[in-house]
């Protein structure tokens, strides 16, 4: 039996989709105003239930969107079904939408990981589809911070990767099981508003009863 086609799937990065001009100028201005007003509320990002580990992840997170929450949620939900179809994923019943706002300053990164790990706080849903929306001040003051999509097989074992450069008002979508990482960010000023900002969004599938 020839297993080469099946094995080759593990050598390629997961399918992904990029949507440009996703939220528009007005929403980005509102998001930047929200970030600036709440910069002291950002906290060091934890690794699942394991707390902060700066060997694995360095960034800061804010988990409330104030008056922007409903509009953002509606926009993300509107693209869920088309994205599932475009990525050839199996359809799923949405349990809930999970969102967080992350700031990556100078030297920030997140090593290779997957998003499907579910903590003890949610036993009824699983992360199925990941969305990352990028925005920043203009002109852009940081460099680096590409999202690297990995194949399941490591590079040394025949695998490969693809780097996707963050762009203003860009949404990146991929299956939550896909291995990925955030490459190191360079932000020479290290001023908070000059950093790489992203909304991480997870479409969580409802578990069967």
pLDDT average, as an integer? 93
Biggest sheet overview: 7 strands, antiparallel
CATH fold-type name: Jelly Rolls
CATH superfamily: q2cbj1_9rhob like domain
What is the top-level CATH class? Answer: Mainly Beta
Structural class: alpha+beta
CATH arch. level architecture = Sandwich
Distance between the termini: 37 Å
Biggest sheet strand order reads 1-11-7-14-5-4-2
Number of domain modules: 1
- Shape call: globular
Please count the beta strands (DSSP E, at least 2 residues each): 14
Taking pLDDT < 50 over at least 5 consecutive residues as the criterion, the unreliable ranges are none
Proportion of residues in β-strands: 25-35%
Order of helices and strands: HEHEEEHHEEEEEEEEEE
Structure annotation, total helices: 4
Gyration radius (Cα, Å) is 17 Å
- Range of helix content: 10-25%
Explain what you see.
- The structure is a single chain.
- This protein has 209 residues and is of the alpha+beta class.
- The protein contains four helices and 14 strands.
- It has one domain (11-206): q2cbj1_9rhob like domain (Jelly Rolls).
- The chain is globular, with a radius of gyration of 17 Å.
- The model has no long low-confidence stretch (mean pLDDT 93).
